[in-house]
Amino acid sequence: MTYAMVLGLLGAEEVHSRIGMEPSGRQFNELCLDYNNKPHNPMINAGAIMTAALVKPNLSAADRFDFIFNMYKRLAGDEFLGFNNAVFLSEKECADRNFALAYFMRENKCFPEGTRLHETLDFYFQLCSMEITAESGAVMAATLANGGINPLTGDPVLTIDAVRNTLTLMHSCGMYNYSGQFAFKVGLPSKSGVSGCVLLVIPNTMGICLWSPPLDTNGNSCRGVQFCMELVSRFNFHNFDNLRGQYTTKFDPRTVKAESNAQILFDLLFSTAAGDLSALRRHWLSATDMEAQDYDGRTALHVATSEGHEEIVEYLLIVCEVQPLPKDRWGRTPLDDAISFNHPCCANLIRESCNKKGIEVPSVSTNSNLGVSQ
């Protein structure tokens, strides 16, 4: 997660001038660099230390920790995030290998100029001492699956490029020395830790956090790996389970393939008619076309103005930035509906949107008074 944040801060080119992007083929804490004298990837200890060195190096130690802690809070949404001081002290006390890695990288001029080595290591130990629950870990994984947007809060925590690059390296390097076999058998981005935690990301679908402390010889959770294999044996989540011409008995629980555009449009218009702003937000975050038209050419904005849902009209115009004057098959606009059904506040919102966008507000159509007594 820290790597994804750093990508958002500095960009991939700057980050990977210091860190490689290849599997190491070695133990996660081995004293080695790649042929360019860089850590092989950000998923092993050397790369993680280098990643920590790139996080706001000009800030004080306290401000640096506050920055990263707040970023993790945004990733976790409303779920638990804590800091375990006992783990931090234990990490410092048993850090001979990490100190050796840091000095080895400094000898090979890996760090940016001016890097304060001991402060960087303390910061790295702090990162290793953060506590999450399975629920908060699942939200973090789901944020990656959702393109960097927290699915609970709607907060765009990570950039889409950062998410793409992070998932790519999780797929190739996230399971230590077992990464190749895991990619072959499971075929999904994942990241394990020596705490027994495994974050599994199913892009555009969901994130899963698994926790089972017993580890195998590679440092991965035994039951976590077993669960992932069982998951893809039952469901077609493997990246290459949907190749053309391939027959499979695996179940696909994802509704996107089976759900027709008509059903999505029905849900959108029904939510609008009911004044359900939360459902409308979910449609917007799911990249639903908020200007989609039904068989009569009517849009969500038509429905919202007809029902007089001012909050919905405002959300569609300001957040979703829909066109304020689409016409249905009778040539009526949302402004016509707002006037016909006597919703002046909705009409004013549409006029304001037209003025901001430089759209000329037309005179009310001849059909606008249908159903209104004279």
Automatic annotation (TrEMBL):
Cross-referenced SMART domains: ANK
The EC number(s) this enzyme carries: 3.5.1.2
Record bears the keyword Hydrolase: yes
UniProt GO MF annotations: glutaminase activity
Highest taxon of the lineage: Eukaryota
A family per Pfam: Ank_2
ANK repeat spans: 296-317
PROSITE patterns hit by this protein: ANK_REP_REGION, ANK_REPEAT
Gene3D superfamilies in alphabetical order: Ankyrin repeat-containing domain, DD-peptidase/beta-lactamase superfamily
Record-level GO BP terms: glutamate biosynthetic process; L-glutamine catabolic process
Reactions this protein catalyses: L-glutamine + H2O = L-glutamate + NH4(+)
Keywords annotated in UniProt: ANK repeat, Hydrolase
Family statement: Belongs to the glutaminase family.
Self-association state and partner proteins as the record states: Homotetramer.
Protein name according to UniProt: glutaminase
Gene source species: Petrolisthes manimaculis
Lineage: Eukaryota, Metazoa, Ecdysozoa, Arthropoda, Crustacea
